[in-house]
Amino acid sequence: MLYTDSQRADHIEEILGYLYQIALKDSRIPIVLPGREFTDEAGLAVRAFQQAYGLPVTGEIDTDTWDAIVSAYHTLTDPQLPLVLFPAPGFLLMSGDTGELVHLTQVLLNLAGRRFANLPQIPVTGSYDEDTEQAVRRLQSISGLPQTGRLDRDTWNRLAALLNQLTLSV
Questions:
Q1: Is the pLDDT reported for residue 170 higher than 50?
Q2: pLDDT tens digits, residue range 1-49?
Q3: Are residues 112 and 148 in the same domain?
Q4: Could you say which of 36, 51, 92, 150 would form a disulfide bridge with 9 (CB–CB 3.0 to 4.6 Å)?
Q5: Per-residue DSSP letters for the chain?
Q6: 18 within some domain
Q7: Do 24 and 66 sit in the same domain of this protein?
Q8: Which domain holds residue 40?
């Protein structure tokens, strides 16, 4: 599948939106309004972010920079409220588990993945398989959580926050 100019512009606008929100809370990052083009000013903001967050300063958004921006965004903006819908605080979903909660998790991961290109689409099987574990690890990575591959309350809340973003932006 080809990566279209429209998709590229959507991703630029998405990441610059995150960077804008970070800049409002972190004075080390110059404020650049989100747009669909990667301007010289956006490059300066990316370089400032990379320097402030200990990344190689290139002014380009590679995978590590993208993940760090998304992680910083969540750290600075997400409320850390427990989600009552999730089972008990110590509950985990992990490799080998099956059932409706696994099925729901796979559906929600796919919903988030339709909007955020750095989250993979996975088969909805109701079985916590390798694809599900890798998708959870990816979500944990971009959210700044330990990459266990297990769905715990913190990971569930990050997934819920992403989905909440989708409903707010529609």
A1: no
A2: 576 888 888 889 889 999 988 998 888 999 988 888 999 999 999 999 9
A3: yes
A4: 36
A5: ----HHHHHHHHHHHHHHHHHHHHH-TTS------SS--HHHHHHHHHHHHHTT----SS--HHHHHHHHHHHHHHH------TTS--TT--B-TT-BSHHHHHHHHHHHHHHHH-TTS------SB--HHHHHHHHHHHHHHT----SSB-HHHHHHHHHHHHHHHHH-
A6: yes
A7: yes
A8: 5-77
Give mean pLDDT, residues 126-151: 93
Give yes or no: residues 13 and 72 share one domain.
yes
Kindly state whether residues 10 and 61 are assigned to the same domain: yes
Domain tally, the chain: 2
pLDDT > 50? residue 106: yes
- Residues in contact with 72: Cβ distance below 8 Å, sequence separation at least 6, in sequence order: 18, 22, 26, 49, 53, 144
Computed over every residue of the chain, the mean pLDDT equals 86
